[in-house]
Amino acid sequence: MGKGNKLTMIKICGIKDTNTAQIAIDNGVNALGFVFAESSRRIFPEDAKKIIQTLPKNILRVGVFVNAPISLVKEIAEYCNLTALQFHGIENVNYCRQYKRKVIKAIKVSK
Fold first, then answer.
1. Which residues in the chain come in under a pLDDT of 50?
2. pLDDT score for 108
3. Domain of 45: which CATH number?
4. At a CB cut-off of 8 Å and minimum separation 6, what does 14 contact?
């Protein structure tokens, strides 16, 4: 893990360049998120891999996906050397159990 209190983790999502990644690391983040889903913050695996290769080993490298096919998630996770996966779609428990990496599942809460 990164610096600071081990009970609190900080993750910055939408990393698209090494400069932003380094600024986040210099400010004590534990994890960096790379958005592979359709978004203005989307990054292509080739670009994410270049950034990830520059990161210290103690920084979690999180891939963010929305309703992506399992095979695609596994392919990107291996290619980019992701340490965790974050899902923001309608992925169920069985879907999330298909992976051998840490999983973060975002859950929508309605009023």
1. 1
2. 84
3. 3.20.20.70
4. 33, 35, 39, 41
